[in-house]
Design a protein that fits this description.
alpha+beta, Thrombin, subunit H, Pdz3 Domain, 4 domains, eight-stranded mixed beta sheet, six-stranded antiparallel beta barrel, 13 helices
Length: about 675
């Protein structure tokens, strides 16, 4: 809740009662109130009301007409020459002008100059506002959780500012974009100042998103005691660029990390996108980031906090350790961040490597070479280890040796290259290392006829008799799924199949998968549905638990996990893939269009999926299928064809062959 300044005494009295109401708290409360009033008085003349333009017109000093629609908010005069900061909540990208209502009631027209897109800030230009006082920013290094904060706005009334008191909860939220306060904020005071007890401006209240909550904007939090403010010190640093009309975008470095833990994982680079700022600056896969702009980096979150606040065009210093152990050297790169990266195209050698069980010291061992693929044409044979990779042309680290001590390192090195580029592989067999040049090709779309033998997929052959069917139970599993598990001890690919919902799965259904699972060396999970009529959100959690239960029985190959389904089961497969995130590497569906409002992320190293789509028996379904294919392909995902299933059972052989080659490098 926001209170007019005149109600501040009542607000303070209520705060004392809430805290516990000490008997002699009157004088300290009055002293605090006086301090709050004095602080607000210092900035009140710079706090204005922002109203969008519509029908009813007023005339600005320059003769422009402006009018008022609905949805007033707040702004802050940062320069009496007529520069006012507001948020994109009040002045969206489509707005050409706005109305600024001054504390004395005058209404002036304003036009957007520049925008800080990641922070949701827009700079407006009006005629001079000589009565606006100068504002003083609080240096970021003087901020600390627990200090007083006061949010000031004029969204409720242009005549009198509203005031909300709280404390500073955190100083580095939104990956360094903002500070956090528990002062009550709302869309009415977005754009207003968040000040300290001395009347200095900490920042500008803005609807920044809370990423852990998966929110689009912070407007979802305004009534939850969580508010954000963009540091005024940060805004003043880019004010000349905004005044010049620039639209500042987030700065992109163009790397991915080996660890799947985006917070506490080691900041070791997995891939460097070709043509990216990181590539042009000479960063390589395997480099471990130790500092950004002098700020120490120990984990991935540290690196993100250092890079995320920067804009496209900013040059940063990135210090990395290159090499391993005592042979590591310290290297400094100075990339200029970009606003966007070229679309990513996945380049492959055409090999499947043995699952390495997270062994970072063993180079990737090739278990299978795709017939007719790039590696096969170059004479690469199964059984050798890929000890190194040297990009020979069109590469980010042209001519430099990239060591590939693990599967992840090899995958990361390839992810930064383009189809058509040439690489020199250092192939080790025993004590001998030979150099082989390979021209990379684009990721395949269709499932090849020949796939890795069961020994490569994790099985040991033996046919159907070597496959067992197990019930994946658990105390909290209402409908335990069945698993079809090939013989052997090495990690296996995993396929999860969703048919029509019908309750528990019986062993007869599992029998139909045994031959395909044995031939391809793939484990198959067949979940049941709690409701015989439909798949539901309750069933999604059971899928993750089923994977964990299967892993307890047999090691799994994390690079080859896929979901598939038909009809309602296919639609559910999309939802499960979304929930599994990067753990799911492929989706195959038949007669199952993309769910409405389903978000498709652009393909990136580590997140790209291989899709198989089929169906479209009537005209409407065919149109949906074409639209879905185009949408996925535009996002950079490989999209193949799932042949017409007719009225028969699942295409077990095709899907198991597909799962066996999902980890294609």
């Amino acid at each position: 809740m926001n209170w007019p300044l005149g109600m501040l005494s009542l607000v303070m009295a209520s705060m004392v009662v809430a805290v516990g109401g000490a008997a002699n708290a009157g004088e300290p409360t009055l002293a605090e109130e006086a301090a709050f009033r004095a602080a607000v008085a210092q900035v009140a003349g710079a706090v204005v009301r922002i109203e969008p333009v519509a029908g009813a017109a007023v005339t600005g000093a320059a003769g422009e007409e402006a009018g008022v629609a609905s949805g007033p908010s707040t702004g802050l005069v940062v320069d009496p020459a007529g520069l006012v900061v507001a948020t994109t909540f009040a002045v969206p990208e489509t707005a050409r002008e706005a109305v600024v209502v001054l504390p004395d009631g005058r209404r002036v027209a304003a036009k957007p100059l520049g925008r800080d897109v990641p922070r949701g800030i827009v700079l407006l230009k009006t005629d001079p506002i000589p009565a606006a006082p100068a504002i003083e920013p609080v240096p970021r290094d003087l901020l600390a959780p627990g200090q007083w904060t006061i949010a000031v706005g004029r969204g409720w009334s242009a005549a009198e500012p509203s005031v909300s008191v709280g404390i500073l909860s955190a100083v580095d939220r939104g990956w360094g974009l903002a500070v956090q306060t528990d002062a009550a904020v709302s869309p009415m005071n977005y754009g207003g100042p968040l000040i300290d007890i001395a009347g200095r401006v900490i920042g500008v209240v803005a609807p920044l998103p809370a990423e852990p909550a998966k929110m689009m904007r912070g407007t979802e939090l305004y009534d939850a005691g969580i508010g954000f403010a963009v540091s005024l010190e940060d805004l003043l640093a880019v004010l000349p660029r905004l005044a010049a009309g620039e639209s500042l975008a987030s700065g992109i470095l163009g790397i991915s990390y080996r660890s799947r833990d985006a917070i506490n994982g080691a900041p070791v680079i997995a891939s460097v996108r070709q043509g990216s700022p990181a590539a042009r600056a000479g960063l390589r896969p395997g480099d471990r980031i130790v500092a950004v702009d002098g700020r120490l980096v120990r984990r991935i979150a540290d690196a993100r906090h250092a890079v995320a606040p920067r804009h496209a065009g900013d040059v940063i210093d990135v210090e990395v350790d290159r090499g391993r152990g005592d042979e590591a050297t310290r290297v400094t790169a100075r990339p200029a961040l970009a606003a966007a990266l070229p679309p990513w195209r996945r380049a492959i050698l055409g090999v499947v490597v043995a699952a390495d069980d997270e062994d970072e010291d063993e180079p990737a061992r090739i278990e299978w070479v795709m017939p007719g693929g790039a590696a096969d044409r170059a004479g690469v044979a199964a059984g050798c280890h890929v000890a190194s990779l040297v990009p020979l042309d069109g590469a980010s680290v042209d001519g430099d040796v990239v060591e590939t001590p693990s599967n992840a390192a090899l995958a990361g090195a390839l992810a930064g290259l383009e189809p058509g580029g040439k690489v020199r592989l250092g192939l080790r067999r025993g004590d001998d290392v030979t150099a082989t040049d390979v021209v990379l090709e684009e990721m395949i779309r269709e499932v090849p006829d020949e796939v890795p033998p069961p020994s490569a997929g994790g099985g040991v052959g033996g046919g159907v008799d070597a496959v067992r069917v197990a019930r994946l139970g658990g105390a909290d599993v209402a409908v335990p799924p069945l698993a079809v598990i090939p013989a052997g001890r090495s990690p296996v690919p995993v396929l999860i199949w969703f048919g029509s919902p019908h309750g528990a799965v019986d062993e007869a259904e599992a029998t139909a998968w045994k031959g395909a699972a044995a031939a391809a060396g793939v484990a198959v999970i067949l979940p049941g549905s709690r409701d015989r009529r439909e798949w539901s959100g309750d069933d999604i959690g059971g899928v993750a638990r089923a994977i964990e239960s299967l892993h307890a029985l047999r090691p799994l190959d994390a690079s080859r996990v896929a979901v598939a389904g038909r009809g309602p089961g296919g639609v559910f497969a999309w939802l499960v893939a979304d929930r599994l995130g990067t753990a799911c590497r492929g989706v195959a569906v038949f007669d199952a269009p993309l769910p409405r409002r389903f978000e498709i992320d652009d393909a990136e190293p580590g997140t790209a999926k291989w899709m198989l789509l089929g169906g479209g028996r009537d005209d409407d379904a065919a149109r949906r299928l074409v639209a879905d294919r185009d949408r996925l392909a535009r996002a950079g995902h490989a999209v193949g064809t799932l042949a017409d299933l007719g009225d028969g059972g699942p295409p077990a052989a095709l899907l198991c062959r597909w799962a066996a080659v999902l980890g294609l490098l």
